[in-house]
Amino acid sequence: MKSVHGGAAADPLAPVLRPVRAGNGFEEALEQILQVVRLGLVAPGDRLPAERELAERLGVSRVTLREVLRVLQDEGMVVSRRGRYGGTFVRDPQPAAAGEPGALSVTPAELEDTLRFREVLEAGAAGLCATDGLPPDGAERLRAALDATRDAAPDDYRRRDTLFHLTLVELAGSPTLTAQYAAVRAPLNDLLNRIPLLVRNLEHAQQQHTALVEAVLAGDAEGAREVAREHCAGTAALLRGFLA
Question: pTM, whole model, 2 decimals?
Fold first, then answer.
């Protein structure tokens, strides 16, 4: 697969899929594939990697993997199809509407904890990227992720937004940081899916994305951290307004 700039495209599943530890193979494999689905790393209607590839990347048997996929199918998150063009496909999510009874599945304290942790991780990653510089293909990957958010259709925007932020965090060079961010981003996306997309907010967010990339590429660590903090604060304000 090629990127929009002609180079080798980065694997969007790499920040999440990794070999599981012995002893909890089923549970950890389920956790990781749930993150792939909830983060939108595979778009609704698209196919997950083939069983053989997934099993190899997770370090589990295909029997274990099929048990994981069966759970996801029972939960209505994926659907399996047979035949030449078969496989396991991500289903369209059915989010609860904002304001519905029971729509908010976290307490106000849990919401604030998620928002604060997300801000710390993103601001820290932005600062690291600006201070330490990016890997050889880092600038290209970051710009491509930014371009994808700019060109995204409304129904695909949040998935592209997630990929942009996940790319930035991954480029900081810490697998632990990336794993922690993926873990906090999944419940954040569940909350974002409960509120409407607002044109003005998307325009403002895109301006912040651009400023963030410019600060990182210029090596302006404090500027990058400040833009990241402001961007996270804007998202937090919307979530509090709709859900708290």
Answer: 0.79
